[in-house]
Structures are given as C-alpha cells and as structure tokens.
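Final report, Chapter 2: Outcomes

The project's central promise was a pipeline that accepts a single protein chain and returns its three-dimensional structure in a standardized token representation, suitable for archiving and comparison. That pipeline is now operational. To close this chapter, we reproduce one record exactly as it appears in the project archive, with the input sequence first and the structure output second.
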Amino acid sequence: MAGRRAQLPQLSGETFITDGGMETTLVFDDGIDLPHFASFPLLDHESGIEALRAYYTSYVAIAAEHGVGIVLDTPTWRANPDWGELLGYSAEALADVNRRGVALLQEVRAGAGDAIPDVVTEMTADEAQRYHEAQVVTFANTDADLVSSLTLTYADEAVGVARAAEAAGIPSVISFTVETDGRLPSGQSLGEAIEEVDAKTDRSVAYFMINCAHPTHFADVLEVGGDWRGRIRGLRANASEKSHAELDAAEELDAGDPQALAGHYRELQTRLPNLNVVGGCCGTSHVHVAEICAAVTA
C-alpha cells in the first residue's frame, strides 16, 4: 500500500481507464432504486454487492481487452456526514461502509489477476478538509491507493480536500466540473482554479481531472496556453451535451453517442499533453468507456 501511494502508476504516462456514470447506470440501466442518489447503501446487502461487482467487472473486461490499466472508484460518493445522516448512518457506520467499499475493490483487483497491467482503487471526497477529514482518514487506513474528489465547483473546497489527504498520508486527485461556458460553477476559470490549488497546497495534488461535463463545454478553454494544462491527467465526461440544470431535470437517460464522445477524447489528446486516465460520468456506461479506450489507444 505505502509503495503504491509513493509512486502512483498513473504518473508513468501509461493509459488508464476509469468506470463510467455509476449512479446513472445503476438507476437507468439496472433499474435499482438509489435513495438520495447514493450507491453506498448497496454494500449493506448481497444483491447490492453483486450489482456493484457486475458493474466493476464490465470495466475490468474493457481494460483487459485493450491492455490498459484501470482506476476504480469506490461506491462512496455520498458516504459523508450530511448524506449519511439522511440515510440513517452513524459516523461509525459510515466509516465501516467506506472500508467495505475498499474491500470490494480489493476483491475485484485480486480477481483481475494478471489480466490487466494495473488496478488502482480510489474514493471520492467532495467537501473541505474539516468536513471530510474522517472519511479521508478512514480510507488512508485501508488499502486504497488515493483519494479522489470529483465534481468540485470551486477552488477552496479542493484545497481543503488536498490538505486533508496530505495530512493523512494518502495521495489526492482533484476533479473539477464546469458549466457549458467552460468555467467552474463559481465563475472561476479552470486554469485559475488549478493554479490556485497548486499554490495553496505546494502542488501536493497528484494530478487534476475534469468530470461531469461534455467535452464541447470545455474544449475551447483548453486552447489557452499555460502550464496548468499539463497538470490535467484525467477526463470523465458526460455522455450528454446538456447543461447540469437540464440533466437534473431530465426524467430519461441521455446516453448521447458513444462513438462521437470517444472522438472528442481523441481530439482533446492534442490539447492535454499528459491525458492518460480516461473514463465517463453521467449517462456513460461500459459501452462508452470501451469506445473511449479504443479511440485514445489507437
């Protein structure tokens, strides 16, 4: 565990995929009810665990087919105090479900054997240092390789997560989301947000990502020069070109065009020189990630 954290394989430049839109896949494709859109309660019963295992296995198969590594998220996006309280989880129960999330991915990693080059497990932390400190520490005391904070909307939140991870001795990955104009929901530009986080954390973040936005929303901002673009290694885009507000109001899944989405990833490789961790977010499934993997490794 310590050795992997000291030298994350993603930093080697080799290609990695991630999974896709976990919650949208479970709800719209698998027909599973997720109260408060939280997937972590599935870890409390065998049928839920089997659904999660099947979800992960579909992506491991893609990585094996293309000979690339894979970065897996635990199903703990909302396993934090506020959402946990709404779902009836105590602090002790949340810590336990976070640990069991890592344990499930350890099973998946062991089951993959030598079929794929590397499997990296991660969790998400989407609040500031004090709010998520307990969750970060819990994961630091498991076999998770890093903590990953997805869909962040402003720099200060990212700074808090990065500092919590550094204090706990586990690498962090920060992933920002943007609106249709390519700017963070806070109004800050993507480049400014990355530079601010690096400046306030002494570049402790292992790398940055963009998620929960369609490539057409941010492709233009990546044409602007700056060293910050080299800090972006990961991309988990939405399948749909709709805005966040439109997706929140949607009653049907917009899966977009998997091949077209993969083409956008291919184009973005010319603007993101270190892009090597690719996957999906809302509306994507293993179908999208398979197309994306084929496109970026062609």
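Archive annotation: The two ends are 32 Å apart (CA to CA).
This record, like all others produced under the grant, will remain available to the consortium after the project formally closes.
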